[in-house]
Design goal:
mainly alpha
């Protein structure tokens, strides 16, 4: 079978990313958390004193690397195209609830794969929810949901979010006293700064070149019967699984998993909310981060929405823990479905009304 260049690129990128993810755990990151976009934005929010949960505060260099890696490779390949103006505030709100869903599950789609690769069967329940949420979102896309077109913007606008995170890197390296650092819990578990940054740069460049997105892969499968984009996710899972087996970090089961709980319903619904919001945004948290690095200010708003969601979740007791979900987190998940669905239906109705009047 002859593989296209796109498929080869996704296979290589997924394999390298899976290996790097496990290496980061071996060097200090929490188990099955070589990368977790949601968890890392949560930690960054804590480092900036946006929430006071002492166990999840650290300016994760991996996130900074992802953004800058995408920025550098897109500039090098003349693909840095500042654009935005496609319903930025709606994107902020949807991303806010995507983060709520992720923190109810305790992980983004990326970490869901890594948890599966380490034997955490709770992530299998979450995967079913993630797929269900994406299918629900696809139904809305088929009914005409859209966030509108983006428009060309200035280089300053496109690069602003990368500039903010580069400034955060400088603070982390040279004025760390301005930030908060966890001394216990997941936030205290971290690989060396330079290695984490390098890992982020590599994965950011690979993800930019190969359009890596798990939500997009499942969406394409249902919308277009095209499984190409899923190859990257599959290879992350396979490579991390093999690495975990080799290093003795594979522990099959539902209980005793690191930074995880066994509330099956809310593992399902939390990731369903993530899938639902991600497909309407046009990409999962990783993809939004990469697009922000490319100069997409709409995705930059999604990043800010996720940071705000993380801060809100920990300030108001919505985030889950190893002991389980919270009442507030459950209600916030339900509210997320209601708010996002309402927004989508209003947009669909408005577009249909405009189409009728246009005719």
């Amino acid at each position: 079978m002859n593989l296209s260049q796109e498929k080869k690129g996704l296979i290589v990128a997924g394999t390298i990313t899976g290996i790097i993810s496990v290496v980061l755990v071996l060097l200090g990151n929490p188990a099955n958390m070589g990368f977790c976009i949601a968890c890392f934005y949560r930690d960054i929010a804590g480092a900036l004193s946006l929430h006071s949960a002492a166990v999840v505060q650290y300016a994760r260099p991996e996130i900074i690397g992802l953004l800058l890696g995408s920025l550098f490779i897109s500039i090098a390949r003349k693909e840095f195209r500042p654009r935005g103006g496609s319903s930025p505030m709606i994107r902020f709100v949807i991303s806010f609830f995507v983060m709520i869903g992720a923190l109810v599950f305790l992980g983004c789609p990326f970490r869901m794969l890594l948890r599966l690769s380490g034997g955490d069967l709770n992530a299998l329940v979450a995967l079913a929810g993630f797929i269900a949420g994406i299918i629900a979102g696809v139904l809305l896309l088929n009914r005409g949901f859209t966030l509108g077109r983006s428009h060309t913007q200035s280089t300053v606008e496109g690069g602003a979010i990368s500039g903010v995170f580069f400034a955060l890197l400088l603070i982390l390296l040279f004025i760390p006293s301005l930030l908060k650092f966890s001394t216990s819990g997941p936030g205290s578990m971290r690989a060396p700064v330079i290695i984490s940054l390098a890992a982020g740069l590599i994965v950011g460049a690979l993800a930019q070149r190969n359009r890596f997105c798990m939500a997009g892969g499942i969406r394409d499968l249902f919308l277009f019967r095209d499984s190409t984009l899923l190859l990257g996710s599959i290879m992350v899972l396979v490579a991390a699984f093999i690495m975990n087996l080799v290093t003795g970090n594979f522990h099959l089961g539902f209980t005793g998993q690191s930074v995880a709980h066994t509330d099956w319903l809310w593992n399902f619904l939390g990731m369903a909310l993530v899938g639902y919001g991600s497909v309407l945004l046009g990409g999962c948290p990783l993809r939004q981060t990469i697009l922000a690095g490319e100069g997409n200010s709409d995705s930059a708003m999604s990043v800010l929405g996720m940071v705000a969601g993380a801060a809100f979740a920990h300030n108001f007791g919505l985030a889950s823990s190893a002991q389980g979900t919270t009442v507030g987190g459950r209600w916030a998940t339900i509210l997320g479905f209601v708010v996002i669905t309402t927004i989508a239906l209003v947009i669909i109705h408005t577009h249909k009304k405009e189409a009728v009047h246009g005719n």
